[in-house]
Design goal:
Layout: E1 2-15, E2 22-35, E3 42-43, H1 45-54, H2 58-69, E4 77-79, H3 82-89, H4 93-105, E5 109-113, E6 116-119, E7 124-125, H5 131-153
Antiparallel strand pairs: 1-2, 3-7, 4-6, 5-6
Length: about 150
């Protein structure tokens, strides 16, 4: 995580009430920003552990990497078509379904809605993506899904 501090200095014209004239007033503002920068990729140890648990063959690994690479800094949610994945990876649609299901079970992916998934930014951050923003969104979606799940159970 990178923390940057920036000092913004802005000069504005403000009306001096006692003299009735416009005067230049300098405003200073210190802005601190936390940033998780993805290099070529940023992976966390849990990502490796999950991938090791999911893969059973080299083809499984290639399929997981293919799915992972569908997510970019501009595409945080993706439609994962089992038939497209199967066609591109030369696997059966059932195998594609199985891999996606395992990725969801291990929380590498989150199912946002039917066919739409989000990659876990606590395990993998795509190149140049704002990791901290993605992580905040992930937590909000997780809480929302937990709340909906509890309401459906009760």
């Amino acid at each position: 995580m990178e923390v940057t501090t920036r000092l913004d200095i802005v000069t504005k014209k403000v009306l001096n009430e006692s003299s009735g004239e416009l005067e230049d007033v300098v405003f200073k503002q210190e802005i601190k920003r936390k940033r998780i920068r993805g290099g070529f990729m940023l992976t966390y140890k849990t990502y490796d552990d999950v991938v090791i648990d999911i893969i059973r063959s080299q083809l499984d690994l290639k399929t997981i990497v293919y799915i992972r690479d569908l997510f970019t800094k501009n595409r945080t949610e993706n439609v994962l078509s089992k038939s497209d994945i199967a066609d591109n990876m030369n696997i059966s649609p059932q195998k594609a379904t199985s891999i996606i299901k395992k990725m969801v079970e291990h929380k590498l992916l989150m199912r946002v809605s039917r066919g739409i998934y989000r990659l876990n930014p606590f395990m993998y951050v795509p190149f140049r993506a704002e990791g901290s923003e993605l992580q905040e969104e992930w937590e909000l979606l997780s809480k929302k899904q937990s709340k909906n799940h509890c309401e459906n159970q009760g």
